[in-house]
Amino acid sequence: MAKRVLITGAAGFLGSHLCDRFIAEGYDVLAMDNLITGDLRNIEHLFPLKNFTFYNHDVSNYVYVPGELDYILHFASPASPIDYLKIPIQTLKVGSLGTHNLLGLAKAKSARILVASTSEVYGDPEMHPQKESYWGHVNPIGPRGVYDEAKRFQEAITMAYHRFHGLETRIVRIFNTYGPRMRLNDGRVLPAFIGQALRGEDFTVFGDGSQTRSFCYVDDLVEGIYRLLLSDYAEPVNIGNPDEITIREFADEIIELTGAKTKVDYKDLPHDDPKKRRPDITLARKLLNWEPKVSRNKGLKITLDYFKSLDREDLYKKDH
Ligand code: NAD
Ligand code: UDP
Protein backbone atom coordinates (compact mmCIF):
# COMPACT_ATOMS: atom_id res chain seq x y z
CA MET A 1 0.00 0.00 0.00
CA ALA A 2 1.21 3.49 -0.84
CA LYS A 3 2.26 5.63 2.10
CA ARG A 4 -0.01 8.60 2.89
CA VAL A 5 1.34 12.08 3.51
CA LEU A 6 -0.55 15.23 4.54
CA ILE A 7 1.04 18.45 3.28
CA THR A 8 -0.22 21.77 4.68
CA GLY A 9 0.41 24.99 2.77
CA ALA A 10 0.18 22.79 -0.31
CA ALA A 11 -0.98 25.54 -2.70
CA GLY A 12 1.99 27.73 -1.81
CA PHE A 13 5.44 27.94 -3.31
CA LEU A 14 7.24 25.23 -1.29
CA GLY A 15 4.15 23.13 -0.49
CA SER A 16 3.32 22.69 -4.19
CA HIS A 17 6.86 21.50 -4.99
CA LEU A 18 6.65 19.06 -2.08
CA CYS A 19 3.34 17.73 -3.46
CA ASP A 20 5.05 17.11 -6.82
CA ARG A 21 7.94 15.29 -5.15
CA PHE A 22 5.79 13.01 -3.00
CA ILE A 23 3.51 12.20 -5.96
CA ALA A 24 6.63 11.34 -7.99
CA GLU A 25 7.80 9.05 -5.14
CA GLY A 26 4.48 7.15 -5.32
CA TYR A 27 2.79 8.49 -2.16
CA ASP A 28 -0.89 9.26 -1.65
CA VAL A 29 -0.83 13.01 -1.11
CA LEU A 30 -3.44 14.83 0.97
CA ALA A 31 -2.97 18.53 0.36
CA MET A 32 -4.42 21.21 2.66
CA ASP A 33 -4.52 24.98 2.27
CA ASN A 34 -6.83 27.92 2.97
CA LEU A 35 -5.40 29.87 0.00
CA ILE A 36 -4.60 32.94 2.09
CA THR A 37 -1.29 33.43 0.27
CA GLY A 38 -1.36 30.36 -1.98
CA ASP A 39 -2.72 29.80 -5.47
CA LEU A 40 -4.57 26.72 -6.72
CA ARG A 41 -2.81 27.12 -10.07
CA ASN A 42 0.33 25.76 -8.35
CA ILE A 43 -1.31 22.36 -7.87
CA GLU A 44 -4.08 22.23 -10.46
CA HIS A 45 -2.04 19.77 -12.58
CA LEU A 46 -2.35 17.28 -9.69
CA PHE A 47 -6.15 17.45 -9.39
CA PRO A 48 -6.86 14.71 -11.97
CA LEU A 49 -4.63 12.19 -10.12
CA LYS A 50 -6.40 9.62 -7.98
CA ASN A 51 -3.60 9.67 -5.37
CA PHE A 52 -4.08 13.42 -4.80
CA THR A 53 -6.79 14.99 -2.62
CA PHE A 54 -7.19 18.67 -1.81
CA TYR A 55 -8.78 20.05 1.38
CA ASN A 56 -9.58 23.77 1.56
CA HIS A 57 -9.13 24.32 5.29
CA ASP A 58 -7.56 26.76 7.77
CA VAL A 59 -5.25 24.62 9.92
CA SER A 60 -5.50 27.08 12.83
CA ASN A 61 -8.90 25.42 13.34
CA TYR A 62 -9.25 21.75 14.31
CA VAL A 63 -7.79 19.54 11.59
CA TYR A 64 -9.27 16.21 10.57
CA VAL A 65 -8.52 13.89 7.68
CA PRO A 66 -9.98 10.40 7.28
CA GLY A 67 -7.86 7.24 7.29
CA GLU A 68 -4.30 6.50 8.25
CA LEU A 69 -1.36 8.85 7.86
CA ASP A 70 2.33 8.03 7.70
CA TYR A 71 3.71 11.56 7.49
CA ILE A 72 2.66 15.17 7.96
CA LEU A 73 4.58 18.10 6.51
CA HIS A 74 3.42 21.34 8.08
CA PHE A 75 4.26 24.16 5.65
CA ALA A 76 1.18 26.38 6.08
CA SER A 77 2.23 29.92 7.04
CA PRO A 78 2.65 33.23 5.33
CA ALA A 79 6.37 33.42 4.58
CA SER A 80 7.12 36.72 2.94
CA PRO A 81 7.64 39.79 5.15
CA ILE A 82 4.93 41.82 3.41
CA ASP A 83 2.48 38.94 3.82
CA TYR A 84 3.08 38.39 7.49
CA LEU A 85 3.10 42.10 8.24
CA LYS A 86 -0.31 42.35 6.54
CA ILE A 87 -1.78 39.33 8.36
CA PRO A 88 0.13 39.25 11.66
CA ILE A 89 -2.52 37.52 13.79
CA GLN A 90 -3.12 34.71 11.27
CA THR A 91 0.66 34.27 11.10
CA LEU A 92 0.93 33.88 14.87
CA LYS A 93 -2.05 31.52 14.89
CA VAL A 94 -0.87 29.19 12.14
CA GLY A 95 2.60 28.87 13.72
CA SER A 96 1.16 28.20 17.18
CA LEU A 97 -2.44 26.89 17.09
CA GLY A 98 -1.97 25.40 13.62
CA THR A 99 1.17 23.57 14.68
CA HIS A 100 -0.58 22.35 17.84
CA ASN A 101 -3.46 20.97 15.77
CA LEU A 102 -1.09 19.14 13.43
CA LEU A 103 0.97 17.72 16.29
CA GLY A 104 -2.29 16.46 17.80
CA LEU A 105 -3.26 14.90 14.48
CA ALA A 106 0.19 13.29 14.16
CA LYS A 107 -0.20 11.82 17.64
CA ALA A 108 -3.71 10.51 16.93
CA LYS A 109 -2.54 8.90 13.68
CA SER A 110 0.89 7.76 14.98
CA ALA A 111 2.39 9.69 12.08
CA ARG A 112 5.80 11.33 11.80
CA ILE A 113 5.62 15.12 11.45
CA LEU A 114 8.10 17.52 9.87
CA VAL A 115 7.56 21.23 10.55
CA ALA A 116 8.85 24.10 8.42
CA SER A 117 10.93 26.40 10.57
CA THR A 118 13.10 29.19 9.28
CA SER A 119 16.41 31.01 9.47
CA GLU A 120 14.33 33.82 11.02
CA VAL A 121 14.54 31.96 14.35
CA TYR A 122 18.12 33.32 14.39
CA GLY A 123 16.74 36.89 13.99
CA ASP A 124 19.43 39.47 13.18
CA PRO A 125 22.23 37.02 13.99
CA GLU A 126 25.33 37.78 16.00
CA MET A 127 26.88 34.46 14.93
CA HIS A 128 27.93 34.06 11.31
CA PRO A 129 27.34 31.73 9.55
CA GLN A 130 24.44 30.38 11.61
CA LYS A 131 24.77 26.94 13.20
CA GLU A 132 21.82 25.05 14.66
CA SER A 133 23.32 25.47 18.14
CA TYR A 134 22.91 29.29 17.97
CA TRP A 135 19.90 30.49 20.00
CA GLY A 136 19.27 33.58 17.95
CA HIS A 137 18.81 37.32 18.34
CA VAL A 138 15.14 38.09 17.81
CA ASN A 139 13.14 41.18 18.73
CA PRO A 140 9.94 39.62 20.10
CA ILE A 141 7.90 42.83 19.90
CA GLY A 142 9.16 44.18 16.58
CA PRO A 143 6.96 43.85 13.48
CA ARG A 144 8.83 40.72 12.29
CA GLY A 145 8.34 39.16 15.74
CA VAL A 146 4.94 37.81 14.67
CA TYR A 147 6.66 35.42 12.28
CA ASP A 148 9.89 34.78 14.17
CA GLU A 149 8.25 34.10 17.52
CA ALA A 150 5.51 31.94 15.97
CA LYS A 151 8.24 29.81 14.44
CA ARG A 152 10.22 29.70 17.69
CA PHE A 153 7.08 28.58 19.51
CA GLN A 154 6.53 26.02 16.75
CA GLU A 155 9.96 24.55 17.42
CA ALA A 156 9.36 24.54 21.19
CA ILE A 157 6.00 22.77 21.02
CA THR A 158 7.33 20.29 18.45
CA MET A 159 10.21 19.34 20.75
CA ALA A 160 7.76 19.09 23.67
CA TYR A 161 5.59 16.62 21.74
CA HIS A 162 8.73 14.69 20.89
CA ARG A 163 10.01 14.59 24.47
CA PHE A 164 6.71 14.28 26.32
CA HIS A 165 4.67 12.10 23.93
CA GLY A 166 7.53 10.37 22.12
CA LEU A 167 6.18 11.68 18.81
CA GLU A 168 8.46 11.29 15.79
CA THR A 169 9.25 14.88 14.83
CA ARG A 170 11.56 16.65 12.37
CA ILE A 171 12.35 20.37 12.21
CA VAL A 172 13.81 21.99 9.09
CA ARG A 173 15.24 25.50 9.38
CA ILE A 174 14.81 26.79 5.85
CA PHE A 175 16.98 29.63 4.53
CA ASN A 176 15.87 31.93 1.67
CA THR A 177 14.64 29.70 -1.14
CA TYR A 178 13.60 30.67 -4.66
CA GLY A 179 12.26 29.14 -7.85
CA PRO A 180 9.19 28.79 -10.04
CA ARG A 181 5.79 29.40 -8.36
CA MET A 182 6.96 32.22 -6.13
CA ARG A 183 4.36 34.96 -6.33
CA LEU A 184 5.64 37.81 -8.43
CA ASN A 185 4.09 40.34 -6.05
CA ASP A 186 4.93 38.66 -2.74
CA GLY A 187 7.51 41.33 -1.87
CA ARG A 188 10.43 38.95 -1.50
CA VAL A 189 13.56 40.30 -3.07
CA LEU A 190 13.88 37.91 -6.00
CA PRO A 191 10.34 38.25 -7.42
CA ALA A 192 10.49 41.97 -6.62
CA PHE A 193 13.63 42.50 -8.74
CA ILE A 194 12.55 40.18 -11.57
CA GLY A 195 9.10 41.80 -11.69
CA GLN A 196 10.71 45.25 -11.78
CA ALA A 197 13.07 44.13 -14.56
CA LEU A 198 10.20 42.73 -16.65
CA ARG A 199 8.10 45.88 -16.18
CA GLY A 200 11.06 48.17 -16.87
CA GLU A 201 10.87 49.74 -13.40
CA ASP A 202 13.78 50.76 -11.15
CA PHE A 203 14.95 48.18 -8.61
CA THR A 204 13.99 48.88 -5.00
CA VAL A 205 17.05 48.09 -2.91
CA PHE A 206 16.32 48.49 0.79
CA GLY A 207 18.99 50.20 2.90
CA ASP A 208 22.40 50.50 1.25
CA GLY A 209 22.14 46.94 -0.10
CA SER A 210 25.09 45.72 1.97
CA GLN A 211 22.91 43.21 3.87
CA THR A 212 23.47 39.62 2.76
CA ARG A 213 21.31 36.60 2.01
CA SER A 214 22.13 33.12 0.69
CA PHE A 215 19.66 31.81 -1.88
CA CYS A 216 18.81 28.14 -2.32
CA TYR A 217 17.11 26.74 -5.42
CA VAL A 218 13.82 25.00 -4.60
CA ASP A 219 14.77 21.53 -5.96
CA ASP A 220 17.79 21.43 -3.65
CA LEU A 221 15.63 22.39 -0.68
CA VAL A 222 13.02 19.72 -1.48
CA GLU A 223 15.74 17.07 -1.68
CA GLY A 224 17.08 18.13 1.75
CA ILE A 225 13.59 18.05 3.27
CA TYR A 226 12.88 14.62 1.79
CA ARG A 227 16.10 13.22 3.26
CA LEU A 228 15.45 14.85 6.64
CA LEU A 229 11.95 13.39 6.83
CA LEU A 230 13.33 9.91 6.26
CA SER A 231 16.23 10.40 8.69
CA ASP A 232 16.01 9.62 12.41
CA TYR A 233 17.09 13.05 13.68
CA ALA A 234 14.56 15.01 15.77
CA GLU A 235 16.42 18.28 16.36
CA PRO A 236 16.49 21.25 13.95
CA VAL A 237 18.56 21.03 10.77
CA ASN A 238 19.53 23.98 8.56
CA ILE A 239 18.77 23.50 4.88
CA GLY A 240 19.96 26.27 2.60
CA ASN A 241 22.68 27.30 0.21
CA PRO A 242 25.76 28.84 1.85
CA ASP A 243 26.60 30.90 -1.26
CA GLU A 244 26.19 34.37 0.29
CA ILE A 245 25.69 37.59 -1.65
CA THR A 246 24.87 41.22 -0.81
CA ILE A 247 21.49 42.48 -1.98
CA ARG A 248 23.26 45.14 -4.06
CA GLU A 249 25.30 42.45 -5.89
CA PHE A 250 22.14 40.39 -6.28
CA ALA A 251 20.45 43.34 -8.01
CA ASP A 252 23.43 43.59 -10.38
CA GLU A 253 23.19 39.85 -11.16
CA ILE A 254 19.52 40.18 -12.04
CA ILE A 255 20.13 43.29 -14.14
CA GLU A 256 22.76 41.34 -16.07
CA LEU A 257 20.58 38.23 -16.40
CA THR A 258 17.52 40.10 -17.64
CA GLY A 259 19.37 42.73 -19.67
CA ALA A 260 17.11 45.29 -17.96
CA LYS A 261 17.98 48.95 -18.48
CA THR A 262 17.02 49.95 -14.97
CA LYS A 263 18.58 51.94 -12.16
CA VAL A 264 18.68 51.12 -8.49
CA ASP A 265 16.38 53.13 -6.27
CA TYR A 266 17.44 52.97 -2.59
CA LYS A 267 14.57 52.77 -0.07
CA ASP A 268 14.49 52.64 3.74
CA LEU A 269 15.61 49.37 5.30
CA PRO A 270 12.64 47.59 6.93
CA HIS A 271 12.58 47.37 10.74
CA ASP A 272 14.80 44.57 12.14
CA ASP A 273 15.94 43.48 8.67
CA PRO A 274 18.75 40.95 9.34
CA LYS A 275 22.16 42.28 8.25
CA LYS A 276 23.70 38.93 7.42
CA ARG A 277 22.42 35.47 6.75
CA ARG A 278 24.24 32.32 5.67
CA PRO A 279 23.55 28.77 6.80
CA ASP A 280 26.20 26.55 8.27
CA ILE A 281 25.21 23.23 6.64
CA THR A 282 27.82 21.01 8.27
CA LEU A 283 25.08 19.06 10.05
CA ALA A 284 22.99 18.46 6.89
CA ARG A 285 26.12 17.35 5.03
CA LYS A 286 27.01 14.85 7.74
CA LEU A 287 23.56 13.61 8.68
CA LEU A 288 21.80 13.62 5.31
CA ASN A 289 24.76 13.53 2.94
CA TRP A 290 23.09 16.58 1.42
CA GLU A 291 24.36 19.77 -0.12
CA PRO A 292 22.92 22.10 -2.75
CA LYS A 293 23.71 21.27 -6.37
CA VAL A 294 22.09 24.09 -8.38
CA SER A 295 24.19 27.23 -8.88
CA ARG A 296 22.52 30.62 -8.53
CA ASN A 297 23.18 31.31 -12.19
CA LYS A 298 21.33 28.18 -13.28
CA GLY A 299 18.50 28.54 -10.75
CA LEU A 300 17.93 32.19 -11.65
CA LYS A 301 17.65 31.35 -15.36
CA ILE A 302 14.99 28.71 -14.69
CA THR A 303 13.12 31.11 -12.41
CA LEU A 304 13.28 33.96 -14.92
CA ASP A 305 11.84 31.68 -17.62
CA TYR A 306 8.99 30.81 -15.28
CA PHE A 307 8.16 34.46 -14.59
CA LYS A 308 8.34 35.26 -18.31
CA SER A 309 5.81 32.50 -19.01
CA LEU A 310 3.14 34.09 -16.77
CA ASP A 311 0.19 36.06 -18.11
CA ARG A 312 0.86 39.76 -18.47
CA GLU A 313 -1.86 40.50 -15.91
CA ASP A 314 0.19 38.62 -13.25
CA LEU A 315 3.06 40.94 -13.99
CA TYR A 316 0.98 43.99 -13.07
CA LYS A 317 -1.11 42.49 -10.25
CA LYS A 318 -0.29 44.56 -7.16
CA ASP A 319 -1.97 42.60 -4.42
CA HIS A 320 -2.84 39.01 -3.70
P1 NAD B 1 3.71 30.56 0.57
O1 NAD B 1 3.03 31.79 1.09
O2 NAD B 1 3.92 30.45 -0.90
O3 NAD B 1 2.93 29.26 1.02
C1 NAD B 1 2.30 29.14 2.27
C2 NAD B 1 0.97 28.44 2.06
O4 NAD B 1 0.34 28.25 3.33
C3 NAD B 1 0.00 29.24 1.19
O5 NAD B 1 -0.52 28.43 0.17
C4 NAD B 1 -1.08 29.68 2.18
O6 NAD B 1 -2.33 29.86 1.57
C5 NAD B 1 -1.03 28.55 3.19
N1 NAD B 1 -1.55 28.93 4.51
C6 NAD B 1 -1.19 29.98 5.28
N2 NAD B 1 -1.89 29.99 6.43
C7 NAD B 1 -2.69 28.89 6.39
C8 NAD B 1 -3.64 28.34 7.29
N3 NAD B 1 -3.91 28.93 8.47
N4 NAD B 1 -4.27 27.20 6.95
C9 NAD B 1 -4.01 26.58 5.77
N5 NAD B 1 -3.13 27.07 4.87
C10 NAD B 1 -2.48 28.20 5.19
O7 NAD B 1 5.10 30.44 1.34
P2 NAD B 1 6.31 29.43 1.11
O8 NAD B 1 7.49 30.22 0.71
O9 NAD B 1 5.89 28.28 0.29
O10 NAD B 1 6.58 28.95 2.61
C11 NAD B 1 6.07 27.69 3.07
C12 NAD B 1 6.61 27.39 4.46
O11 NAD B 1 8.03 27.37 4.45
C13 NAD B 1 6.18 28.41 5.51
O12 NAD B 1 5.90 27.72 6.71
C14 NAD B 1 7.40 29.27 5.68
O13 NAD B 1 7.47 29.83 6.97
C15 NAD B 1 8.52 28.27 5.43
N6 NAD B 1 9.76 28.94 4.96
C16 NAD B 1 9.87 29.38 3.67
C17 NAD B 1 11.03 30.00 3.26
C18 NAD B 1 11.24 30.46 1.84
O14 NAD B 1 12.33 30.96 1.51
N7 NAD B 1 10.29 30.29 0.94
C19 NAD B 1 12.08 30.21 4.17
C20 NAD B 1 11.90 29.78 5.48
C21 NAD B 1 10.74 29.13 5.87
N1 UDP C 1 14.84 43.67 -0.27
C1 UDP C 1 15.18 44.72 -1.13
N2 UDP C 1 14.26 45.12 -2.06
C2 UDP C 1 13.03 44.52 -2.20
C3 UDP C 1 12.70 43.45 -1.34
C4 UDP C 1 13.63 43.05 -0.37
O1 UDP C 1 16.28 45.26 -1.03
O2 UDP C 1 12.26 44.96 -3.07
C5 UDP C 1 15.83 43.23 0.73
C6 UDP C 1 15.28 43.07 2.15
O3 UDP C 1 15.38 44.29 2.86
C7 UDP C 1 16.20 42.01 2.72
C8 UDP C 1 16.55 41.14 1.51
O4 UDP C 1 16.26 41.92 0.35
O5 UDP C 1 17.39 42.58 3.22
C9 UDP C 1 15.74 39.84 1.44
O6 UDP C 1 14.39 40.17 1.61
P1 UDP C 1 13.21 39.11 1.50
O7 UDP C 1 11.95 39.85 1.77
O8 UDP C 1 13.32 38.41 0.20
O9 UDP C 1 13.50 38.03 2.61
P2 UDP C 1 14.03 38.05 4.13
O10 UDP C 1 15.27 37.27 4.06
O11 UDP C 1 14.29 39.47 4.59
O12 UDP C 1 12.94 37.39 4.88
From TrEMBL:
<dbReference type="InterPro" id="IPR036291">
    <property type="entry name" value="NAD(P)-bd_dom_sf"/>
</dbReference>
<dbReference type="GO" id="GO:0070403">
    <property type="term" value="F:NAD+ binding"/>
</dbReference>
<keyword id="KW-1133">Transmembrane helix</keyword>
<feature type="domain" description="NAD(P)-binding">
    <location>
        <begin position="6"/>
        <end position="301"/>
    </location>
</feature>
<dbReference type="GO" id="GO:0005737">
    <property type="term" value="C:cytoplasm"/>
</dbReference>
<protein>
    <recommendedName>
        <fullName>UDP-glucuronate decarboxylase</fullName>
        <ecNumber>4.1.1.35</ecNumber>
    </recommendedName>
</protein>
<keyword id="KW-0456">Lyase</keyword>
<keyword id="KW-0472">Membrane</keyword>
<dbReference type="InterPro" id="IPR044516">
    <property type="entry name" value="UXS-like"/>
</dbReference>
<keyword id="KW-0812">Transmembrane</keyword>
<keyword id="KW-0333">Golgi apparatus</keyword>
<keyword id="KW-0735">Signal-anchor</keyword>
<dbReference type="GO" id="GO:0042732">
    <property type="term" value="P:D-xylose metabolic process"/>
</dbReference>
<comment type="pathway">
    <text>Nucleotide-sugar biosynthesis; UDP-alpha-D-xylose biosynthesis; UDP-alpha-D-xylose from UDP-alpha-D-glucuronate: step 1/1.</text>
</comment>
<keyword id="KW-0520">NAD</keyword>
<dbReference type="GO" id="GO:0048040">
    <property type="term" value="F:UDP-glucuronate decarboxylase activity"/>
</dbReference>
<comment type="similarity">
    <text>Belongs to the NAD(P)-dependent epimerase/dehydratase family. UDP-glucuronic acid decarboxylase subfamily.</text>
</comment>
<keyword id="KW-0325">Glycoprotein</keyword>
<dbReference type="Pfam" id="PF16363">
    <property type="entry name" value="GDP_Man_Dehyd"/>
</dbReference>
<dbReference type="GO" id="GO:0033320">
    <property type="term" value="P:UDP-D-xylose biosynthetic process"/>
</dbReference>
<keyword id="KW-0210">Decarboxylase</keyword>
<dbReference type="InterPro" id="IPR016040">
    <property type="entry name" value="NAD(P)-bd_dom"/>
</dbReference>
